[in-house]
Amino acid sequence: MESNFGKRNKSSEGVKTYTIVPVPMADLGNNERRMLKAMLDDPNLAWTLPQLLEACNWTDQAHVAGAGLNLEEAGMLVIDEISSKHVTLGEEGIRASEIGLLESRLMNWLLEQEPELRTISNLNESFEKSESGPGIGLLKKLGVILERGLLILPEDIKSIQTTLEEREAYITRLSEGSNIPSDIEWLPLFQSRKNIIEVNESIIRTWKLTDAGIKFDTNSLDETQQIVDLTPEMLQTDEWKNAEFKRYDVNLPAPTPAGGRPHPMQSLIQRIRSIFLEMGFSEIEGDFVRTAGWNMDSLFIPQTHPARAMQDTFYLDNPQNIPIEEKWLNLWADVHENGGDTGSTGWGGKFDQDEARKGLLRTHTTVNTVHHLAENPNDACRVFGIGRVFRQEAIDKSHLPEFHQIEGIIHEPEASLPMLVTTLKTFYAKMGYPDVRVRPAYFPYTEPSLEIEVKWRGMWLELGGAGIFRPEVTEPLGTEWPVCAWGMGLERLAMLVLGMDDIRELYLPDLQKLRSMPII
Ligand code: PHE
């Protein structure tokens, strides 16, 4: 930051120096003035936080930190930081202060036994396994020898005892709350053992005036009324001419306001909805729980199709079956078995009506559009829907068992393939993806069938399927016009819009991340 009152310069040798320039009074804020004035009462002291709080009559340490930084920036003071370690007893340490350190208790036990009785098995009888195990290690480090299950004390017991006394004394000092700096040498020994001591590191700051600070003219340190906001009233009354303005610093860190916002997925759905609405489409909805008949058979998906199997589709126990009007079952049976009146040969085999009545969670939203056609076979329409679908998928970065589709149809006498492609291109262009291409694909219910791909960062990404409904689908519904149909993935699109590569992130309750996602 450039500041007027103490410029940080680089001298020709590349060493940072301060050029002290006179500080215009108005450049020091009231907090800075108060702190400087307080410090000038004892100009050579290295002030601590509590001292400064008291001298300035502040309760909030943020004032000291803020004003201190500004004064440092102005070359008036230097901030010194010393890191200090504060040691207290942990759970085991407190126990040791009461009954002695494990190594001392073991040593006492050893001394009480006859030499030939100092065996590991005897030790295990007097001490818990959790103590005797680590304890033997501690004794060995002190010079005790372990030979064929027998613990042998060295000649020089005295030096072991001295060591133990010193250790005990350290624990006692800690239990009395003392924190002697020279005790630092004990840290490695006890830090490597569980829960004996706890070490907290803290930083202690002091603020000390520089020569420039000491020489500062105290007369200019009176606090003044400083104006932060310029109001219309001040402008009208000319009051601003005599006012002293607080300097506005755009470089100061400030918290980002975290107001509420819709979840990015909700915003995206809203945006897609308004695009289809402005393109002249109406919105339709439907239930999650459907029959296999409407979800699959009405779409001429063969009853033997692998995607109908349990491992791909969530079939329900309740309702296990849902009644379907006889009329539909018969019509579907006809097309599936022999093509009905469509000129198709159908799939052959026997159509199973029980299979059609099975309850399931819809696997695609095409069930909504086909049902809409069944209810309005003679009405031209352009409808869309954005809805949740369910498939048995293992969760990974690009798959979820619940996701959304953007579904739609155009049902009218002149509906055609170019109309379908143009509609999809227009939609993606309005979403901000002008490069769209279609490729041949296969679905049991459309002919021709297309895959829709969008160019993103130089790559073509598949975002959905589309096509013209086959006669085997439209004929039983009683419509005679062509139907353009599509179903596109919403989450895939969301990943492009929000620039992420893991689909799961969309639904994690990570507020930090959600807040930082782009506004849609
Ligand atoms: N239902 C298809 C899917 O889930 C997409 C689709 C819809 C394809 C309509 C063609 C026509 O992937």
Mean pLDDT: 89
How many helical stretches?
20
Question: How many β strands by DSSP?
Answer: 18
Strand order in space, largest sheet:
10-13-14-18-17-16-15
* Residues in helices, as a percent range: 25-40%
What structural class results from the helix and strand content? alpha+beta
* Biggest sheet features: 7 strands, mixed
The best one-word shape is: flat
First CA to last CA: what distance? 34 Å
Q: Beta-strand percentage?
A: 15-25%
Task: Give the names of the bound compounds.
Answer: phenylalanine
Using the CA coordinates, give the radius of gyration. Answer: 40 Å
Provide the low-confidence segments as ranges. 1-26
SSE topology:
Blueprint: E1 7-10, E2 16-19, H1 30-40, E3 47-48, H2 49-56, H3 61-73, E4 77-89, H4 91-99, H5 102-112, H6 120-126, H7 129-142, E5 145-147, E6 150-152, H8 157-175, H9 187-191, E7 197-209, H10 211-214, E8 226-227, H11 232-237, E9 244-245, H12 264-278, E10 282-283, E11 289-291, H13 292-295, H14 326-338, H15 353-357, E12 359-361, H16 366-375, E13 381-390, E14 402-411, H17 417-431, E15 436-443, E16 446-456, E17 459-469, H18 471-477, E18 483-489, H19 490-498, H20 511-516
Parallel strand pairs: 8-9, 10-13
Antiparallel strand pairs: 1-2, 3-7, 4-7, 5-6, 11-12, 13-14, 14-18, 15-16, 16-17, 17-18
Bound molecules: phenylalanine.
Phenylalanine binds at residues 364, 366, 443, 446, 465-467, 485-487.
Brief summary of the model shown:
Helix content is 37%, strand content 21%. With 520 residues, it is of the alpha+beta class. The longest helix has 19 residues, at 157-175.
